[in-house]
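Lab meeting, action items carried over

1. Structure of the two-component assembly. Owner: GW. Status: complete.
Input record:
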Amino acid sequence: MGDPTGAGVTVEAVFRDVYGQAVAALVRVFGDITLAEDAVQDAFVTASDRWPREGFPPNPGGWIVTTARRRAIDVARRSARGRQLEEEAGASGLVSGADATIMNDVGPVQDDRLRLIFTCCHPSLQIEHRVALTLRLLGGLSVAEVARSFLVSEAAMTKRLVRAKYKIKAAKIPYRVPSNSDLPARLEAVLAVLYLIYNTGADDRDRAQLRREAIRLARLLVELMPSEPEAAGLLALMLLNEARMPARLISNELTLLKDQDRTRWNRDLIGEGHAIVRSCVRGNQPGPYQIQAAIQAVHCDADSFDRTDWSQILTLYEQLVVYAPTPVVALNRAIAIGEVEGPEEGLAAIDDIAPDLDGYHLMHATRGTLLRRLGRRQAAYTAFGKALELAPLEADRRFFAQQIAELA
Amino acid sequence: MSQYLLSTYAVEGGVPGAPATPEEMQAFMQRVMELEAEMDESGTFVFGGGLHGPDAATVVNNSKAEVVMTDGPFPEAKEHIAGFYIIDAADLDEALAWAGKVSAATNHPIEVRPFRATGRVADHMKEMQGG
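Predicted assembly:
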């Protein structure tokens, strides 16, 4: 769509910035997600035709919301529900009143997007639906993009979104920030969705867009809920993981932490992540995301693998296991034990959880690594074989095949 | 205000987690009565009841030339509705909160389902005509 203003503004950039805000603002006014989405999309279609020819408006975001609102009113007027809405809202200036009822000069009410996040991540929706809705409505990803990210057909993703929106409407999933008593559990559901989006984008350069989107949404959440330390913890966790991506994924080959070229780590992201972790520590309201971020902060602090402060990492895993007593956390704790106390002790810790993780490739890979350190090459060979058999990603399989070849 | 059906299921005639001893039954009744009092107080309770088992059901079909009666329930399933409440709630969160209380009182999972429409069809017709 070009940049006729020469000011670095494109319709795509505006779309990225204001799509979620505009949809959220219209959902507040009209109470209908599909109507809001369609109207905002129409507004962008008009914009991409008009702006490059006539120049960008001084406040593109405001223009989009105003245009979308008019469009939604036209559509709504043609339906019985719309006529009812018009009557109800006549006095509040919804239909003919000033745009200021929806937008102030800068943009819609900030809380609109927060409300929409909580609607999209409602625990009564399937987790796949929560993720898809969040990316579509708040991230502004196209249905095709969301479908590609989750390796399903566009038709299947369309169905998923239609079904989720139907449930929101039919069951009246509320469009609001939950009450204080519900907030901790509901915020946890939101954080889990964002982290799942991030992790779906990890380990695959083709899906890096998901990581960017997850970080953008986490930043938004922190901005909207500055007093929630777990939201900050999640953002820090993502930033510190992201900082190491350039060294971790080289031409889609997986490089282990141990072997990574640490000069390729992104120092700006590490600095930002560290600052958040420090402020979390000062806040002293620990939670699982903050602890995971702190663990990654310790890794990022070390200028080489050998100089990693493993005893601090072990202490943090001991804390994490209290909040999240899952086998995968226990496996990471076992890895830390292997570094602090030695491979023998690490293996013993893994033996305790091995039955729960028999189908998890990284458990076998970790065993293989520890067995190799003990010189038990045959057992290590078998363990990596199991890991190879179970690994879902091609990059992982190539890595395990290489370990096996070296042990043969 | 919307209406929701909160229902509980019996599996092959029995409700899992149902009270087994007289003492358990008494405690169960106590919990349910307290809950219903709370529903009444907040104007939530619309209607509720426990059903006889599927063996007591009859299906009547008068959609063809003559009336056909069939012994037994409508679906040939293992699970059947054992009892239900119909409640008034502002939105799903409110309905889910009530379902949580019903589930705690009955020791049984509760399905929450929104009504698409309630009341008499004639009333809806009037409403749709802008009455």
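2. GW to write a short summary for the group page. Key points so far: Residues 11-107 of chain A form one domain. The interface with chain B takes residues 80, 83, 122, 124, 170-174, 178, 182 of chain A (CB under 8 Å).
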